[in-house]
Specification:
By secondary structure, the protein is of the alpha/beta class.
Amino acid sequence: MSDRKQAKVKFAIIGVGLIGGSLGLCLKDKLGDAIYITGLCRHQSSMDKAVALGAVDYASSDLPSVVADADIVFLSPPVLQIVPMVEKILPYLKPGTILTDAGSTKGYIWQHLQKILPKDIYYIAGHPMTGREKSGVEAAVKDLFVGKAYVIVEDTGAPPEAHAKLMSVLQYTGANFTTLDIAQHDRCASVISHVPHVTAAALVTLLNRSGDDRESCIKLIGGGFKDTTRIASSNADMWADICMTNGDAIASDLKNLQNILGEVIGAIERHDRPAIHDYFAASKACRDSLLENATKKFDPN
């Protein structure tokens, strides 16, 4: 491991996996020695990989050595682990430290953090809406964020200078930054990210429950099924946490999806070809328009 050293920006990553590792690779590529990155890893093998790949300058399982003197701490563990992790690191943070995160839900995190954060520790909620079906630092790539939506929530009480400092670093990701309030973020994330993941997993489950036809169905798998279900290979712990922390929005949207599917089922059972045609035509027109006209779109993968 590299020895610790002075640098213009001291940046700590908690959870050097796909997202945290990709951020580290990006920032080291763009900023070089102008940033010094420490990373918290649980196992020695992960520490060695993170340093060898260049995602961090220094890796350890020791909290104080990772977060002490950090200007910015980037939290990238599963959602339900973020608040307990903040509780652990608070005693070692210097006044003015900025906390940000990659959590896919924001309301749950802020509801708990606002009760424990000192006035001189600033939380700026973030959500880089990107990813891959692979996990771990070995899956990290420096351009993971380029062109992807990155939500910065501005209603957590952090002062403007803290926002400016954070963005002076995150700008190097090449992401399309946008702002939403916490409640709106969680509702929108449900529609464009969380429900699609649940649905992809449901399609795989449907195949797995196809009884005597299962093996024959598997032989027929092609691009359509692979493309539609690709995100079902994502990390199960992460998605269980997301469902637990954005449950109201996800359940509501799944019920709306259930109603839509019910309408299609009814049209099919009635042999109502015009209704079925209109369903597919309207969906195609809407999707084509979104892809053509959206300059900043949520693209979770």
